[in-house]
UniProtKB/TrEMBL annotation:
Alphabetical list of PANTHER family matching this protein: PROTEIN STICHEL-LIKE 2, REPLICATION FACTOR C / DNA POLYMERASE III GAMMA-TAU SUBUNIT
Domain AAA+ ATPase: residue ranges: 37-178
Protein name per Swiss-Prot or TrEMBL: DNA-directed DNA polymerase
Main enzyme class: transferase
Top-level lineage group: Bacteria
Keyword field contains Acetylation: no
Region spans: Disordered: 397-417, 532-555
Reaction equations catalysed: DNA(n) + a 2'-deoxyribonucleoside 5'-triphosphate = DNA(n+1) + diphosphate
Entry keyword annotation includes Transmembrane helix: no
Family from the record: Belongs to the DnaX/STICHEL family.
Keyword terms, alphabetized: ATP-binding, DNA replication, DNA-directed DNA polymerase, Metal-binding, Nucleotide-binding, Nucleotidyltransferase, Transferase, Zinc
Enzyme Commission number(s): 2.7.7.7
GO molecular function: DNA-directed DNA polymerase activity
Length: 578
């Protein structure tokens, strides 16, 4: 017989063989013993937590020749045929590849027929959330009033995608992710049965990479066993799972603690060159620092370590940290992990996180404090004298010396953004700007935002159109980083222009500018164009005024305010500025 993967060979055949999920096993077994089974069940939870296995075990127990029983016997003809997949009364249906209403109607038409050889006709519908709306509607009536001999078991990893009318007609069981201890225990059972030597630290690495899924854990174990040959090693497990060694965690943590940012960035570069994903690295470092914090606060709970192994070097490293430092680092990495979801430059975010961690103001242990150099002490003394002189001058009513002004001005200067501002294009838009164009864009702004992909819409949360001509408009961003990311995204401008053209009838191309730069460019344009000084010389209809002249700005109306005044009259509309 051909080789079978571990997760297939060691799939549980009884409830007692299932790992975890004790709350579900006990409920189903009691229902079987006391003949209190219902017509529809919903098994939901993360992948690899036993949903389909539990459905098959439950189906065997329902149709077992020894019923009512809490466990299937696995010896009778019914149990054996269900295991072999040849029982015509237990139908497994994959909704991912059969999502159309036609397939569902074909099933429903056969529901009314009695089972051929069993007590119940059981339908196991896997990935049920993939069914179309029409298929759900076709299934709904049958779920509400099924024949007495039919049982439906629906399995899904995304229960929120199911209609509430379907969920309300089922008994719902939520499967939980397996703990690392459960995964390691099951892998030891499998390796012991297969007579394969193992290293428990290797199994912990596999369990960490599996993220709570038993099927993922056994698949990775299969890969590591095949890759290693006679003996599984830590290096093999790290290579197969894409994890990093504990020594690398030690080295990077010690570099950060010593504020050696050069060494920390070098280690990060080495990890990325080796093919490690920065997003996965952030998650692993959060877990490692969590383990350090755990050993600090509860040294006896070494069994709860998720990533690190309990050894002398780990304990010594934990003693070098202040708890406040670990809290700050975990907070920085958690925020970085959230920001990474909206960017393709994940390595840059990881490097920035390391810089923040080195520069964080953490408390210093008195024992680790080194003596200050004589030059530093002399500088501190000089500054103290200067501070006392300034305080004396201020006390006597004297003004600060002019020498302090450049220092203050230099300190207040904001860092320059790397984004190159397209000043020429912005001024061209301002020269030809009209109120009609900017109002057309603002009126359809919310509609266009709803049509954009999530990655594009996320960039526009703090953005606003501020000026528009017949073929372009200026888009102002609150943050420089969002402005730069939008300008570097080649598909963003094209998609945005196409959507605007659908709703406004014009193909406006966006011109990006940060908030601070926009205010300066706008002010320079008004001064250079003489819009403020030349208003009195202009004649004609105020509606013809430039949008950035005094009259033009006053005449620019919010489209929602204009619509309210049209409906109710200006006398009945009051505008309050928040």
């Amino acid at each position: 017989m051909a080789y079978q993967a571990f997760y297939r060979v060691y799939r549980p055949q009884t409830f007692s063989e299932m790992t975890g999920q004790s709350h579900i096993k006990q409920t189903l077994q009691n229902a079987l013993l006391y003949n209190k089974t219902t017509h529809a069940y919903l098994f939901s939870g993360p992948r690899g937590t036993g949903k389909t296995s539990a459905a098959k075990i439950f189906a065997k127990a329902l149709n077992c020749e020894q019923a009512p029983v809490a466990e299937p016997c696995n010896e009778c003809a019914s149990c054996k045929s269900i295991d072999a997949g040849s029982n015509t009364d237990v139908i497994e249906f994959d909704a991912a590849s059969n999502s159309r209403v036609e397939e569902m109607r074909e099933i429903i038409e056969k529901v009314r027929f009695s089972p051929a050889n069993s007590r119940f006709k059981i339908y196991i519908i896997d990935e049920v959330h993939m069914l179309s709306n029409s298929a759900f509607n076709a299934l709904l009536k049958t779920l509400e009033e099924p024949p007495e001999h039919v049982v439906f078991i629906l399995a899904t990893t995304e229960p929120h995608k199911l209609p509430l009318t379907i969920i309300s007609r089922c008994q719902r069981f939520d499967f939980k992710s397996h703990t690392q201890v459960d995964l390691v225990k099951r892998m030891i059972e499998v390796l012991t049965d297969a007579q394969i030597p193992y290293n428990e630290q290797v199994l912990k690495i596999i369990a960490q990479a599996a993220a709570g899924g038993m099927r993922d854990a056994l698949s990775l174990l299969d890969q590591v066993v095949s890759f290693s040959g006679d003996e599984m090693t830590l290096e093999d497990a790290l290579l197969v799972t894409g994890s990093i060694s504990q020594d690398m965690f030690y080295d990077l943590a010690e570099a950060l603690l010593a504020k050696d940012i050069g060494q920390a960035l070098t280690l990060l570069e080495q990890l990325v060159r080796d093919g490690k994903d920065p997003v996965r690295l952030v998650e692993d470092f959060i877990t490692f620092f969590r383990d350090l914090l755990l050993i600090q606060t509860a040294p006896d709970l070494h069994d709860m370590l998720e990533l690190a192994s309990h050894e002398e070097r780990f304990e010594e490293l934990a003693k070098q940290f202040e708890a406040a430092t670990l809290y700050d680092w975990i907070d920085i990495l958690t925020k970085t992990q959230q920001e990474m979801r909206f960017s393709n430059h994940t390595k840059i975010y990881m490097e920035t996180a390391l810089l923040k961690m080195v520069q964080a103001d953490a408390p210093v242990r008195p024992a680790a404090a080194s003596a200050a150099s004589p030059e530093l002490e002399a500088k501190v003394t000089q500054l103290e004298v200067l501070v006392r002189e300034l305080q004396h001058q201020l006390k006597n009513g004297a003004a600060a010396t002019p020498a302090t002004a450049p220092v203050e001005q230099k300190r207040r200067q904001s860092p320059q953004s790397s984004f190159k501002i397209p000043v020429g294009r912005i001024q061209e838009v301002l020269k030809n700007a009209t109120k009609t164009d900017i109002q057309a864009i603002k009126t359809n702004w919310a509609t266009v935002m709803a049509q954009l992909p999530r990655s594009h819409a996320a960039l526009l949360n703090e953005a606003e159109p501020v000026a528009a001509s017949a073929d372009a408009f200026v888009l102002k961003f609150k943050y420089d980083i969002h402005c730069q990311m939008a300008s570097e995204n080649q598909s963003f401008a094209a998609v945005f222009s196409q959507l605007l053209e659908q709703y406004t009838g014009k193909a406006y191309s966006p011109v990006f500018v940060p908030d601070v730069n926009w205010l300066k460019i706008r002010e320079d344009f008004i001064k250079s164009s003489g819009l403020k000084a030349g208003n009195e010389e202009k004649q004609g209809d105020p509606a013809e005024e430039h949008p950035f002249s005094a009259e033009g700005e006053a005449a620019q109306e919010d489209p929602f305010i204009a619509e309210a005044e049209r409906l109710f009259g200006k006398d009945f509309v009051e505008i309050h500025e928040d």
